[in-house]
Automatic annotation (TrEMBL):
It holds the Pfam family NAD_binding_8. It comes from Pseudomonas fluorescens (strain ATCC BAA-477 / NRRL B-23932 / Pf-5). This is Renalase. It comes from the Bacteria. The keyword Coiled coil does not apply.
């Protein structure tokens, strides 16, 4: 009987590794603490339709990722988003069109990882608390006290702080992951009955608590009957207000939005706030992935590269490549 490979994390890095390993003939079992896949590319179902609270769109610059995104497009999992872009600088709002191609999952961001899971074996609502080695193989302990295994190798595809906690068996790798600082992002979604009077569909913001805002409904395939918006605070503002209540965060970012539009904004008919504790690595790295091939432990995620969707996908490919090569 073949002993499967365990992958912890069903974000885009974990699924990228899973696909590559399966294509190379391996059996993989996936684990995620959340109820669904996607991690920071997940979408929240709500009374205002489904909302992309994490990754807003992604760009493809590396040739390998460009090819992969074309494959996703052919399958209908992604589509191009061509928002009317603005820039807000020193309180001045101005159109800021460009030629960049931007992709989104359709009909929601999480459609991509959901499709990539396909028929792979995945355990959700399963938080792994320990990765340990038996005589020959690896085992995973979860928060409910259950043990999973045996596994021939383990790929850890979580944000760096969560990877550190799982790397007790590999102190060197744990040390590297522990050195990666990840910044938080507060995200707020607002929905209005009457569409706001602005042609803006996306805005890069400076000199404000806000960093970015998007008209969620302007993305292809979204079906909300309301005018939905997603606002992201800057890392600095999010850190300063990390323990503020969701109500207070919503109020403050709603206020910053009104200030940016120079208008009295109606009260939203729906709002929600989400705190991403490990939203983005404070600096980017060029590790590709981390590995201890002798032990059979691999680590990947956006923080091993650019801190973007593309970096996370490439990191998953790199972890899979190194694992597969160690067996040749
Ligand atoms: P994640 O998506 O974080 O996946 C890790 C998974 O591991 C999660 O599903 C988590 O539940 C699971 N997990 C963690 N610990 C455990 C455990 N102990 N046991 C089991 N499971 C566990 N990128 C862009 O390219 N463009 C953007 O516009 C953009 N905007 C962003 C906006 C926000 C607010 C945020 C938060 C991120 C944004 N990003 C953007 C970054 C992008 O989302 C990430 O780079 C990418 O999704 C990271 O993928 P990943 O697989 O490395 O990690
Ligand atoms: P991109 O090329 O669209 O944007 C990169 C950066 O260039 C933007 O942040 C913005 O500062 C600037 N920019 C691009 N087009 C612009 C325009 N038309 N007008 C004014 N400024 C413009 O996309 P890329 O390189 O794929 O980056 C992904 C985006 O995801 C970035 O905006 C990044 O800030 C964001 N991100 C947010 C995270 C969070 O936690 N909030 C985490 C990771 C990424």
């Amino acid at each position: 009987m073949t002993v499967p490979i365990a992958i912890i994390g069903t974000g885009i890095a974990g699924l990228s590794a899973a696909q590559a390993l399966r294509d190379a003939g391996h059996t993989v079992h996936l684990f995620d603490k959340s109820r669904g896949s996607g991690g920071r590319m997940s979408s929240k179902r709500s009374d205002a339709g489904s909302l992309d609270l994490g990754a807003q769109y992604f760009t493809a610059r590396d040739r390998r990722f460009v090819t992969e995104v074309q494959r996703w497009q052919a399958k209908g999992w992604v589509a191009e988003w061509t928002p009317q872009l603005y820039n807000s600088h020193g309180g001045q709002l101005s159109p800021s069109p460009d030629e960049q191609t931007r992709w989104v999952g359709t009909p929601r961001m999480s459609a991509i990882t959901r499709a990539l899971i396909g028929d792979l074996e995945a355990h959700f609502a399963c938080r792994i608390t320990e990765v340990f080695r038996g005589e020959q193989h690896w085992h995973l302990q979860d928060a409910e006290g259950f043990t999973h295994g045996p596994f021939s190798h383990v790929v850890i595809a979580t944000p760096a702080p969560q990877a550190t906690a799982l790397l007790a068996a590999a102190p060197k790798l744990a040390g590297v992951a522990a050195g990666v600082k990840m910044d938080p992002t507060w995200a707020v979604a607002l929905a209005f009955d009457t569409p706001l009077e602005t042609p803006m569909e996306g805005c890069f913001v400076q000199d404000s608590p806000l960093d970015w805002l998007a008209r969620n409904r302007s993305k292809p395939g979204r079906d909300s009957h309301l005018d939905t918006w997603v606002l992201h605070a800057t890392s600095a503002w999010s850190r300063q207000h990390i323990d503020l209540s969701k109500e207070a965060v919503t109020e403050q970012l709603h206020g910053a939005f009104a200030e940016l539009l120079h208008s009295v904004m109606p009260a939203p008919t729906f709002s929600l706030a989400h705190r991403w504790l490990y939203a983005r690595p404070a600096t980017s790295h060029e590790w590709g992935a981390l590995a201890d091939a002798d032990l059979g432990l691999y680590v990947c995620g956006d923080w091993c590269l650019s801190g973007r969707v593309e970096g996370a996908w490439l990191s998953g490919q790199e972890a899979a490549r190194r694992l597969h090569e160690s067996l040749q």
